[in-house]
Every structure is written in structure tokens, then in C-alpha cells.
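Q: Here's a chain of 179 amino acids. Please give me its 3D structure as C-alpha cells.
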Amino acid sequence: FLIERSTGNTFTCGATNAAGTQILTMGTTGTYTTNAAWRHLLISWDLATALTHLYINDVSDNSTTLATNDTIDYTQADWSIGGAGTGAFKLNGCLAELYFAVGTFLDFSVIHNRRKFISASGKPVHLGTTGALPTGTAPIVYQRLASGAAASSFATNLGTGGNFTITGALTTGSSTPST
């Protein structure tokens, strides 16, 4: 399972089944070049019904090319955020929060579901100390950096999964998506 900004400046999301066969491929049609602007991404899918959503800054920008009714393989021993587990493919940018709830589908075409994550003014909303506010259940991964916290605390998973190990060094951004 991978989400990335491609060399063509589009965001893409893809996933495979246990056999390594690609079963989900979605991305943006718009391009998003590197700049100092924060971007809010919401991505959801229900492969049983081939329903997918990808929103950038509360606007739908979804081009799905593959949504096969199959099971995504989430059983990798090591998960990584902001790069590969080896330290390669490092993200050149800032992450404020990451919320990942395996097996929970939210239909983001319903504005009420988007408001659980982004306000009408385009600012992120508080998801709770464990990320449980949007659905009533903490997700498997919920990473956030509280104001004034050390960058290394981003490795602490506030969700139900395990913590992460930092490969390299993290620094805090010069701004936040709330400002």
C-alpha cells in the first residue's frame, strides 16, 4: 500500500493483494507542485463496491483506474511513513497528521464525513487524543505532532498499532496547517 506524489506532480494511491497483484490504483488529475502550501488529503475506498474518493483541500480530484473486489495485503512486517523502511524515497515535505483506519470506509462525497477531518474554512479539525473522534474507534495508525512537541514524538503512534522507529532525522516545519 503506497501513497506518493509522483514525478509528474500528481498524488497516487495504490495497493496490492497478498499475491502482489495490483488491485487499487487511484490518483489526482490535477498537479501539485512543490511550494510552501499545506495540502489536506482525504482518501477512501470500498473495493467491494468499487467506490473510491480522493479529495485535496476539500475538493474531489479522483481518477481511479483500478478498484478490484479483493483484499488489500496489510500484513507487511514493517510499515513506513514519509519514505521506505530502508530510509530511501524520503518525503521532502511536512506531515502534520496521518490517520489510517484499515477496514473503515467513509464516503467522502458526503460533506458531513469530510467535516470530521477538515473544516468548512479548510483547516484540519481535532480528531481526539487517539484519533477516535471521526468514527468512535481509534484507527490503527494515528500520527500527529502536538504544538511545541519534539519532532521525534511523531514516531509515537496514538492509534492502536505499534510505534514507529525514526530512520534519519525529523525536524518541525516552519508553519502548521492550522495557521
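Q: Can you summarize the key feature?
A: The two ends are 31 Å apart (CA to CA).
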